[in-house]
Design goal:
Blueprint lengths: L11 E3 L1 H7 L2 E5 L10 H14 L8 E5 L3 H12 L3 E7 L4 H9 L3 E5 L10 H11 L4 E3 L7 H17 L6 E4 L5 H13 L4 E7 L4 H7 L20 H4 L5 E5 L1 H15 L5 H16 L5 E5 L14 H6 L12
Parallel strand pairs: 2-10, 3-4, 3-6, 4-5, 7-8, 7-10, 8-9
Antiparallel strand pairs: 1-2
Length: 327
């Protein structure tokens, strides 16, 4: 088996403590077990393979992408495995762990100052501009608008969940960054079971939940999460079929991360912790007996300098209380 063949077919595990507390089964799709440690490996694989197949990516070209980190790690693994150079543009306020992993897997890393999307120095526009200046040299992946992203989850992740739950799934809960995961999984699973409820969870500082409810992008606050939540409508998110959406503050994801770490030996990254906090919220507000699936979207150790640093949390006015749960 090659490293590319090892992407996908991840296990689905139950979170015992939260299932016991709520009377519903809360499951995690273990995307942290992909070779690059995140769910983004799936999209990276299909976006590159399809680009090779249709001639957009040819021998001698360099793969380039702007990313908050995990897609860059996935592209570094996939690209270098197939003999391509990879260049990743990333804001310099992401975890150092992600920076190191991108370089460990052989990609060139370009760090830029974080700025609003409208600023042409944004990491997205920087990657786009470099590719446009030399289109024969670069293949720009464009994960937000590249529909091979959602297709990876429509063809693989969604069917895996359906098979692993034997079709007995009541809720799918997910954050959104590029929108590929929730787009592809919701589309596939809704085709199998229209009554399934798909719930989007948004961090503070993102406008997706507000857009779902009111048709406009509006947000407040900020979040310690990285790579999720956006303030614009992109092609992959347009594919999502959503029944509800809400925003959760960082304190809730911190609480749940430390709780399952203590009680279940599950070490979540911030995005996964937000997913689990949302799944727990749903389980508490519905009748017992539900089956709720969400994503362990990346490995927690790449967030050790932020989510698992008490000094960092204190700097963000966040506290740790592993006994926070009061039903």
């Amino acid at each position: 088996m090659s490293i590319l063949e090892a992407i996908g077919n991840t296990p689905l595990i139950e979170i015992p403590s939260l299932s016991k507390l709520t009377g519903s089964k809360i499951f995690l799709k273990c995307e942290n077990l992909n070779p690059g440690g995140s769910i983004k490996d799936r999209a990276a694989k299909l976006m590159i393979l399809n680009a090779i197949a249709d001639g957009r990516l040819q021998k001698g070209m360099t793969i380039i992408e702007g990313t908050a980190g995990n897609t860059g790690i996935g592209l570094a693994i996939v690209g270098n495995s197939l003999g391509f150079e990879v260049k990743i543009v990333m804001p310099n306020n992401q975890t150092k762990e992600k920076e190191r992993l991108i370089e460990f897997y052989g990609a060139e890393l370009i760090l830029v100052a974080p700025c609003p999307f409208a600023d042409q120095n944004h990491f997205y526009h920087t990657a786009r501009r470099l590719s446009e200046e030399n289109p024969r040299k670069y293949f720009w992946v464009n994960q937000f608008e590249n529909l091979d992203n959602h297709l990876a989850h429509y063809q693989h992740t969604g069917p895996e969940i359906w098979e692993q739950t034997n079709g007995k799934i009541d809720y799918l809960v997910s954050t959104a960054g590029s929108g590929g995961t929730i787009g592809g999984c919701s589309k596939f699973l809704k085709e199998q079971k229209p009554a399934l409820k798909v719930v989007l969870v948004d961090p503070e500082g993102s406008g997706l939940a507000h857009f779902y409810k009111h048709g406009e992008f509006k947000s407040s606050g900020s979040s310690i999460t990285e790579g999720i939540g956006i303030m614009r409508l992109v092609a992959n998110f347009k594919k999502a079929i959503i029944d509800d959406a809400f925003t959760l503050p960082d304190q809730e994801l911190v609480n749940i991360a430390y709780y399952v770490k203590k009680h279940d030996n599950i070490v979540l990254g911030p995005s996964a912790a937000l997913n689990v906090a949302a799944a727990f919220k749903i389980a508490k507000s519905t009748e017992p007996g539900q089956t709720i699936v969400t994503f362990w979207c990346d490995s927690g150790e790449r967030s050790s300098s932020k989510l698992y640093s008490l000094d960092f949390l204190k700097s963000k006015n966040l506290s740790v209380d592993t006994d926070f749960i009061r039903l």
